[in-house]
Amino acid sequence: MHVYTDPLKQEQLDWRIRVQIIGGIAQGLLYLHQYSRLRIVHRDLKASNILLDSDMNPKISDFGMARIFVGNQSRANTNRIVGTYGYMSPEYAMEGLFSIKSDVFAFGVLLLEILSGKKNTGFYGCDSPSLLGHAWKLWENNRALELMDPLVDVPSNSLIPLRYIQVGLLCVQENPADRPTMCDVVSMLNNEQTILASPQHPAFTVGRRTIVKSSPREGTDGIGSENGLTLSLIEAR
């Protein structure tokens, strides 16, 4: 789903379509984390793993790195870190720790990418190390709406775009405990009465490569199962 950074296709993505894509991805992750028979952490949520149908409805794809959480397990750790810089949460990239909050971080990156029309990986400009850093700098200076893709005709007198930016920043907080759950995110996006916390300095991610650290062993701080899913596609609901 790099359509939002393709100059030839960006104009097709008006505000309504971008909201639809963001909401669909959020609902899909909520299903994986909370409503699926098996609780699933995707671990590699990124733009290229979001498929769009002819009606621009998003579908989360590529579950090759997904992990199943069982019982009351809330997180796991691994010595084999696989993923894509720019979307990986700092605790996963640096310590191999992952949870549903790792997916929340990746969702926040995606949200900010869709709003801005820019990729987090390979972002240059404004003396910021990443799109996240750029978004934070604008937020701190009360200029957050400057993050929006200039091709988007943002509704006049609407606070919704600013709200979406705030949700994105909350999702990319450095501490996993400070990030909302996807249930919270869906509520924040759909209910303007939901009060949002003030985001703090987010985690900045830099780099443009997929990294793989190999180790003969992989462990969890709970009993996690290796991915045995045959799912290749889950439609956002």
UniProtKB/TrEMBL annotation:
Region Disordered, residue ranges: 215-237
Catalysis: reaction(s): L-seryl-[protein] + ATP = O-phospho-L-seryl-[protein] + ADP + H(+); L-threonyl-[protein] + ATP = O-phospho-L-threonyl-[protein] + ADP + H(+)
One MF annotation (Gene Ontology) recorded for this entry: ATP binding
EC number in record: 2.7.11.1
Keyword field contains Transferase: yes
EC main group: transferase
Keyword list, A-Z: ATP-binding, Disulfide bond, Glycoprotein, Kinase, Nucleotide-binding, Serine/threonine-protein kinase, Signal, Transferase
Matches recorded under Pfam families: PK_Tyr_Ser-Thr
The name this protein goes by in its record: non-specific serine/threonine protein kinase
Protein kinase domain sequence ranges: 1-204
InterPro entries in UniProt: Kinase-like_dom_sf, Prot_kinase_dom, Ser-Thr/Tyr_kinase_cat_dom, Ser/Thr_kinase_AS
